[in-house]
């Protein structure tokens, strides 16, 4: 195809519409742009880190997805929602929402080679979804590491000849401590306290429960009693952040090697614990409770809400981390295989760890002469009560306690690495003018220090009540469902599902099939928004345990944490509509145009340079037209686009930043291209 001679832009003669000289863009020839863009692309590839190997990336994904949520959160939700009945909505949510959105996020990050904020330039009007995900990610990395701090506390406490949470001899116990080893001769329905008095069994608490509440947390009477710092936990929190920083500050190549050990070792430990758990008395009762569905619970919306949010939480959907991790992949990486491997491993690990937990709950129920559901309070402390109780009864209890809490530490760190990396990548790509990537070590240090400062509120005597609000509002439930639904909408209805499907097919080298587009367009948004609405309709004020109800201001604080992320979608869209020049229709025309595009390797760009478009008009070589400033006033009514013989148009994004190019051939092909 012959090239046009480069032309210069002449501003209008009207003085009112004249532009200052320094505001005018220069318009290089197409050949010059080809060279500049290729040079810029090569430069970006050199500066941007990459995974050392495909398996490093898969291990990082497994580390992100298979974390404390599988050992701590999944068994807790099963326990809360009637055991086996929970597995049914869990499986449905996994197939219809979890895996399709997981693939969408990994693929879009890999395809566009950018982080979790800038990637949503594919449909700028909904770019607020990136800031929403960033907000959730920041909340998550601030409170998730508190669980790691608890694990460190228990790990250090395990270096003794006799574990401290196994009996009622500690000064942290009270008269309601029920030590099973001293109950010989106690009347049915009663237990002997450590001072020899009889109390009803329903009033008793296990030594592990009291160790958790009184020794570790020093928990206050309510959220309005903040209390003092738990200095042991402050030290553990500081150590957790130091470990996190040291493992990620050098980039994904270093992190990819570390997660090989931290992602695989927990499976060995879980297997050892399962073998031991199945040999304990009462284990069968716990397994039966786990496997036997209570069908009547399926009528309760909360069961479905918890199942969907657990899928989103466990698979880290809606927080931008998958997009950021995927952006460090090679462009031709097979993200379909990655998604399937992680999906199977994650679900399998959740169910597998459930057997471990419920065998131990059955054992606790047998020893305390209670039913399984009455053994321990519902709450985040399940893992720090049920597991320690079982560890105390094992031969070599100290050894097993050390390896178990080491496992929790590794699982937690795996997820923390990925969340912080995703958070940092999103900001580094969104604000390149601040040279955050060039100063990665200092930038990561600032993230760690700021999150540590906020986390200090969560290691006070009343910190557990705030932790529960962070978990229930800030990084789960409403937020994840809201964000995931809009992500699907941005891709399917903003960017165009046919266009996205074609781009993914070109990237993978094969078609991902019909199932995933159907989910992206219909099923996943319906599941996400549907359960989001159900959760609003069925909303109940927050509680902690069975008897503590939060005051009004506590629930308002929780909603503020949720709105912190959810507001970005409407508010950022409104901001763009108000600040973009032109009529409402012209603004819509601008804000629906992508500002980011697929980035194949530089050698592929050079190979296809100058070649004509493919029959479908989707050649990636066509993103190099003469420039045209959308923000310039005085356009014609069809405005906002200037075509050359290659039918391409230049677009200036809303931040006035790096030039991006749109190919209207994509728009024309949507009408004639089918899946």
Which features would summarize this protein structure in a list?
disordered C terminus; single chain; 2% strand; disordered N terminus; mainly alpha; 675 residues
Using only CA atoms, what is the Rg?
A: 28 Å
Shape: globular
End-to-end separation in angstroms reads: 30 Å
**Range of helix content:** 55-70%
Q: Figure out the total of helices.
A: 23
Low-confidence stretches: 1-46, 608-675
Mean of residue pLDDT values: 81
What structural category characterises the helix and strand content?
Answer: mainly alpha
Lateral strand order in the biggest sheet: 1-2
User: Sheet bearing the most strands, described?
Assistant: 2 strands, antiparallel
Helix and strand succession? HHHHHEEHHHHHHHHHHHHHEEHHHHEEH
Q: How many DSSP E strands?
A: 6
**In percent, how much strand structure appears in the residues?**
under 5%
Write a structural description.
The protein is mainly α and 675 residues long. The protein is 58% helix and 2% strand. A two-stranded antiparallel ribbon has the order 1-2. Strands 3-4 form a two-stranded antiparallel sheet. Strand 1 and strand 2 (198-200) form a beta hairpin. Helix 3 packs antiparallel against helix 10, helix 5 runs antiparallel to helix 14 (397-430) and helix 13 (383-393) runs antiparallel to helix 14. It is globular, with a radius of gyration of 28 Å. The model is unreliable at 1-46 and 608-675 (pLDDT under 50).
């Amino acid at each position: 195809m012959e090239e046009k001679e480069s032309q210069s832009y002449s501003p209008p003669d009207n003085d009112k519409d004249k532009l200052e000289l320094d505001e005018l863009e220069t318009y290089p020839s197409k050949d010059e742009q080809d060279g500049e863009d290729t040079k810029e692309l090569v430069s970006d590839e050199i500066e941007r880190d990459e995974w050392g190997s495909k398996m490093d990336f898969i291990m990082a994904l497994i580390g992100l997805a298979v974390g404390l949520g599988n050992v701590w959160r999944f068994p807790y939700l099963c326990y809360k929602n009637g055991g086996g009945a929970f597995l049914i909505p869990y499986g449905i949510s996994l197939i219809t929402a979890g895996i399709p959105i997981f693939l969408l996020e990994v693929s879009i990050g890999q395809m566009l080679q950018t982080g979790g904020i800038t990637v949503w330039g594919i449909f700028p009007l909904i770019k607020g979804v990136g800031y929403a995900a960033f907000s959730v990610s920041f909340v998550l990395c601030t409170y998730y590491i508190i669980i790691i701090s608890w694990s460190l506390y228990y790990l250090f406490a395990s270096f003794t000849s006799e574990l401290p949470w196994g009996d009622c001899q500690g000064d942290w116990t009270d008269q309601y401590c029920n030590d099973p080893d001293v109950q010989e001769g106690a009347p049915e329905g009663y237990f002997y306290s450590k001072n020899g008095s009889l109390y009803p069994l329903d009033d008793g608490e296990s030594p592990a429960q009291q160790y958790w509440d009184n020794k570790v947390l020093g928990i206050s009477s309510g959220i309005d009693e903040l209390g003092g710092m738990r200095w042991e936990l402050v030290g553990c929190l500081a150590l957790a952040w130091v470990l996190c920083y040291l493992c990620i500050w050098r980039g994904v190549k270093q992190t990819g090697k570390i997660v090989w050990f931290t992602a695989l070792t927990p499976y060995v430990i879980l297997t050892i614990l399962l073998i031991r758990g199945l040999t304990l008395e009462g284990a069968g009762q716990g397994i039966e409770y786990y496997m036997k569905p209570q069908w009547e619970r399926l009528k309760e919306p909360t069961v479905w809400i918890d199942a969907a949010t657990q899928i989103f939480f466990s698979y880290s959907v809606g927080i931008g981390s998958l997009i950021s991790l995927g952006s460090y992949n090679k462009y031709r990486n097979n993200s379909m295989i990655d998604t399937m491997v992680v999906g199977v491993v994650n679900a399998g690990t959740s169910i597998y760890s459930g057997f471990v937990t419920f065998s131990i709950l059955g054992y606790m129920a047998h020893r305390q002469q209670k039913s399984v559901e009455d053994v321990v309070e519902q709450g985040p402390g399940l893992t720090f009560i049920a597991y320690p109780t079982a560890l105390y009864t094992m031969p070599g209890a100290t050894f097993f306690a050390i390896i178990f809490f080491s496992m929790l530490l590794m699982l937690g760190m795996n997820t923390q690495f990925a969340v912080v990396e995703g958070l940092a990548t999103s900001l580094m790509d969104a604000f390149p003018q601040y040279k955050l990537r060039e100063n990665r070590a200092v930038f990561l240090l600032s993230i760690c220090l700021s999150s540590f400062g906020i986390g200090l509120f969560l290691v006070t005597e009343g910190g557990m009540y705030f932790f529960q609000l962070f978990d229930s509002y800030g990084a789960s439930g409403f937020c994840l469902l809201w964000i995931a639904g809009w992500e699907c909408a941005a891709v399917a209805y903003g960017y165009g599902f046919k266009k996205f499907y074609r781009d993914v097919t070109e990237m993978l080298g094969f078609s991902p099939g019909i199932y995933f587009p159907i989910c992206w367009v219909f099923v996943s948004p319906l599941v996400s928004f549907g359960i989001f609405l159900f959760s609003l309709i069925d909303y109940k004020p927050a509680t902690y345990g069975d008897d503590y109800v939060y005051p009004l201001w506590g629930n308002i604080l929780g909603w503020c944490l949720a709105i912190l992320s959810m507001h970005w979608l409407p508010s950022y869209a409104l901001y763009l509509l108000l600040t973009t020049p032109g009529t409402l229709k012209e603004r819509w025309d601008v804000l629906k145009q992508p500002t980011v595009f697929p980035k194949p390797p530089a050698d592929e760009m050079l190979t296809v340079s100058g070649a004509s478009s493919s029959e479908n008009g989707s050649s990636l070589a066509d993103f190099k037209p003469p420039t045209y400033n959308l923000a310039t006033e005085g356009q014609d009514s069809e405005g906002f686009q200037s075509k050359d013989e290659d039918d391409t148009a230049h677009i200036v994004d809303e931040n006035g930043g790096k030039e991006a190019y749109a190919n209207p051939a994509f728009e024309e092909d949507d009408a004639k291209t089918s899946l």
